[in-house]
Each structure stands twice: as structure tokens, then as C-alpha cells.
Design brief:
Radius of gyration: 14 Å
Largest sheet: 7 strands, mixed
Number of strands: 11
Shape: globular
Oligomer: single chain
Order of helices and strands: EEEEEEEEEEE
């Protein structure tokens, strides 16, 4: 089984920075993608950023230039550096792992960590 354990998050003023980290354990395939989603109250969960084991990244338009995703394949960890935070970034942030390739994969989620940006 696979487990994702998140850390980071918290309360920050607008314009500030936060760093989220996530460690995956268990049976992790060599081909995978890790990333972060977020969900604000009353809204659907949305992709924030993702990164493949090969280093290809994908960002939501709303965070491009402000957030940076990175990973350590040897440690199966993924981090999200969030700068110039805005009140609209307030949400529960979830670590995500797509374990496997496009033909056969399983999705796993962390428990979520709250990010609150005050104006």
C-alpha cells in the first residue's frame, strides 16, 4: 500500500511564502507523477502543480510564476514552494501520487493540509 504524508501549510499574510512537503512510502513505481491539488470551500478540487519522475512540470495558470514544484526521486518526496501568496490561494492542499504509467496507474491522496492567506 502507498501512504502520503504532508507537512507545511499554515497561516500567512498576503505576499508571504509557504512551503509544502509530501513524502510517499510503500510500493512506488519508477514511472509516476506527484503533485498538489487544492480545494476551497464550495469549490471543486483543482490541480495546482504536478511533476513527473522525469521532471516535466505542469502548473495551473493562476500559480505560474509564483509557485515552484520540485521532487526528489530517491526519497519519493515532492515539495511546493509558494511565493507571493494571495487570499484566493486559501484552500486545503492535497498531495497526489499517480503511481504507474498512462496505461495502468493508481491514484493516491494525502490527508490534506490547510493554507490560509490573510489580506
Amino acid at each position: 500500500q502507498v501512504q502520503l504524508v504532508e507537512s507545511g501549510g499554515g497561516l500567512v499574510q498576503a505576499g508571504g511564502s509557504l512551503r509544502l512537503s509530501c513524502a510517499a512510502s510503500g510500493s512506488i513505481f519508477a514511472i509516476n507523477a506527484m503533485g498538489w491539488y487544492r480545494q476551497a470551500p464550495g469549490k471543486q478540487r483543482e490541480l495546482v502543480a504536478a511533476i513527473t519522475n522525469g521532471g516535466t512540470t505542469n502548473y495551473a495558470g493562476s500559480v505560474k510564476g509564483r509557485f515552484t514544484i520540485s521532487r526528489d526521486n530517491a526519497k519519493n518526496t515532492v515539495s511546493l514552494e509558494m511565493n507571493s501568496l494571495k487570499p484566493e490561494d486559501t484552500a486545503a492542499y492535497y498531495c497526489h501520487l499517480r503511481n504507474g504509467d498512462i496505461r495502468s496507474y493508481q491514484d493516491y491522496w494525502g490527508q490534506g493540509t490547510q493554507v490560509t492567506v490573510s489580506s
